[in-house]
């Protein structure tokens, strides 16, 4: 995380802007570890879903997954998705030596196109039918889409809390 923030700070137009880290708060406590990594960095804060909660980060639930999808849908319909000319990734799997990020943009597009409703019928008369949203198909993951959707949704929440919308 420090490496990513350092790389962001290399660009003059991002040198002094506030950075808000929005980690997923799951059972593995990764959000707490990320918060510890960035706690003392200048002009960096960690978003907390519930300001009264001591746990940093946000939880991915069935309810907010729907909210994420609506936020992404609205963003795409309004053509509010742009890639900065200085786009980079910290993923060695996606960034070529020359800094070309075409592969990660293509992967995001693939995950956006794969995302769908999945219905699991009840296993017996006492069970309940479940409906979920996922981009996982044939071993393919949806992590990039989920991060993209979380950023759009929780970024809006953060802006509203700051009175910037």
Can you describe this structure?
The chain has helices spanning 2-9, 30-38, 62-77, 102-114, 143-161, and strands at 19-21, 44-46, 116-120, 130-134. The protein is 39% helix and 10% strand. The protein is mainly α. The mean pLDDT is 86. Strands 1-2 form a two-stranded parallel ribbon. It contains 5 helices and 4 strands; from the N terminus they run H-E-H-E-H-H-E-E-H. The chain has 2 domains: 1-59, no CATH class; 63-155, no CATH class.
Content of β-strand: 5-15%
* Net shape: globular
Q: Which structural category fits the helices and strands?
A: mainly alpha
User: Can you count the helices?
Assistant: 5
Helix content: 25-40%
Question: How many domains make up the 3D coordinates?
Answer: 2
* Biggest sheet, spatial arrangement of strands: 1-2
What about the largest sheet?
A: 2 strands, parallel
* Radius of gyration (Å): 18 Å
* Secondary-structure element order, N to C: HEHEHHEEH
Report, as a whole number of angstroms, the end-to-end distance.
Answer: 28 Å
Q: How many strands?
A: 4
Kindly report the average pLDDT value.
86
Which consecutive residue ranges, at least 5 long each, have pLDDT under 50? none
What's a concise summary of this model?
This protein has 5 helices and 4 strands, in the order H-E-H-E-H-H-E-E-H. It is mostly helical and 165 residues long. Strand 1 (19-21), helix 2 and strand 2 (44-46) form a beta-alpha-beta unit.
